[in-house]
Amino acid sequence: MDGFRRSDHQAILACLTDDVVWRIHGARTTRGKAEFDAEIGAPGFEGSPDLSIERLISSGDTTVITGSGHSSHQSVVGPIHFNYCDVLTFRDGLISEVDSYMVAVP
Question: Which stretches make up the SnoaL-like domain (predicted)?
Fold first, then answer.
């Protein structure tokens, strides 16, 4: 999460398996580090997102993070506020799958 807050591609990619899958439910799925990297700071977004973690639950090879945040996009006037839930699956100490659920809030 700190890597996303800083838009630090290298820090984020260092946490991932080479074959990582990122499912952004309702939007798209990326496969592999190159596609994941392209999604970090996707085109149109300005600066780094402000992310707050509200809850973190871990069991076995799975961690669930819920929180809220906001970011700016050049096509939207003012910040975009959202709530999120990320389900991370780990393999050999690295993130192999991410399931992201995001809901815009007014």
Answer: 2-97
What confidence tens digit (pLDDT) does each residue in 18-76 have?
999 999 999 999 999 999 998 886 666 767 788 999 999 999 999 999 999 988 777 77
Q: Which residues contact 73 (CB under 8 A, 6 or more apart)?
A: 44, 45, 46, 80
Residues listed for the chain: 106
Where do the domains of the chain lie? 2-105
pTM: 0.86
Residue 23 buriedness (CB in 10 A; 0-12 / 13-18 / 19+): middle
CATH number corresponding to 2-105: 3.10.450.50
